[in-house]
Amino acid sequence: MEGVCSLETAYRGTNKMITGIVFGVLTFWLFAQAMVNIVPTVQEDLGVSAGTLNIAISLTALFSGIFIVAAGGLADKIGRKKITNLGLILSIIGSLCLVLANGALLLVLGRVIQGLSAACIMPATIALVKAYFEGEERQRALSYWSIGSWGGSGVCSFLGGAIATYMGWKWIFIFSIIFALLALWLIKDTPESKAADTGNSKFDSTGLIIFIITMLALNIVITQGDEIGWTSWITIVLAAVTIIGAIVFVKVENGKSNALIDFGLFKNAPYTGATVSNFLLNAVAGTLVVANTYVQEGRGFTSFQSGMLSIGYLVAVLAMIRVGEKILQKVGAKKPMLWGTTLTLIGVGVMGLTFLPDLAYTIVVFIGFALFGLGLGIYATPSTDTAVSNAPDDKIGAASGIYKMASSLGSAFGVAISATVYATISHTSGVSVAATGGIIANVIFAVIALLSILFLVPNNTGKNDVR
User: Fold this and answer.
1) pLDDT tens digits, residue range 402-435?
2) Who contacts 284 (Cβ-Cβ below 8 Å, separation ≥6)?
């Protein structure tokens, strides 16, 4: 395999390896993510404030998003299996902190470690798939990876709630430890894989520091801007830090041989189209917040009833991921990416019809969630495969890190922007108008995602593997 060193170049990936990778992915998407659904229980049990708990919840996604590119680059340099194993060990330590927590300290520490764990596992496991699977087998492996991530995030609400109700919330993280241990055992026979030694192994610590400062400032502006005040000097200073940090980061990183983010990757149009559309479609996750909040505040639904409205989303995502893989194998990547995004756009759009009476609106939202899930399910594997197959072998960890960072940051920013639009409009015009405004913001994200695929992804993308 050109540009890649591995201990056994003839090795081909197995189902045992895929299972281990999926179990590793689930430690974040299923178990760590379940924290968002058990807030009252954890707060009562540990006696921490709501503010502390909200910070603890957000830290996992934030640390994952910030460090995922660095972890992907390290995986290329020192070994993708090593970084995967490191991520699984960190997952065990982070979960153990939560199991042993009796106050804020271990809770916050555990969530930070879980974020670092996810940053290691996600790009390194995608890179292992690229190293040891080819063609349709790679696409099949990436489908199961997507089922672990998309499916895990869909199931976490129900599973986390069930475990917390019937066994106690700490059992969620005991199960996470078990899955991480199983993952370590299942991938133990997988040989190491890393990029060929280029002679420049020095880590880009300067780039990482600038990136962390910039992302932290941006995250605070988006998530806390409404509470701090959009015209507050703190918000203005943080916005300035974000803009200046982004400019400095691009200037410092551009052309650097060991850059944290290799901007040269974006010269490849299919990779850029997949990454940009991935960011935007993850931003559409804001729809979940807007729709669930509106049906509870405006239509009198309970949290359980609003959760049941989105059951079609979960079923559709899980059912369609492998269908998206089969479409990819028949017609290439561009068409299923376009079809999936269009279905998502329609599904999200109909949820904005808040003028409908209760029964009609309930039916429309249920159908909308199902279309949303159908679209994302069809889009997932063709998009991931496009990003993976168009990245150079010696930079697949870093490229996967950027692609998955787009997922994390897209979701975080989409939720924050949607919630801000909803809250701002509801103060002046009521929740129905606010819900329509929040949904329109997500429709705009989906439209731009559609345009990015249309203009950036060539028609023949993925057709080399088509029979």
Assistant:
1) 888 888 778 777 877 887 788 788 888 888 888 8
2) 344, 348, 372, 414, 442, 445, 446, 449
For residue 87, give the nearest of 142, 16, 32 by alpha carbon.
Answer: 32
**Number of continuous H segments (helices) and E segments (strands) in the chain:** 18, 2
Say which DSSP state 4 is in.
Answer: E
Q: Are 248 and 260 in contact (CB under 8 A)?
A: no
Distance CA(353)–CA(370), nearest Å, equals 16
Give the rounded distance of the alpha carbon of 287 from its chain centre. Answer: 15
Query: Cα separation of 24 and 2, whole Å?
Result: 27
- 349-365 pLDDT, tens digit per residue, is 999 888 888 889 889 99
**Verdict on whether the full-model pTM lies above 0.70:** yes
| C-alpha 217, offset from chain centre | 20
**Per-residue model confidence (pLDDT) at position 379:** 93
The letter for the amino acid at 89 is I
Task: Classify residue 214 by its DSSP letter.
Answer: H
The Cα angle at residue 136 between residues 131 and 137, in degrees rounded to 5: 50
- Tokens at 142, concatenated: 């990436």
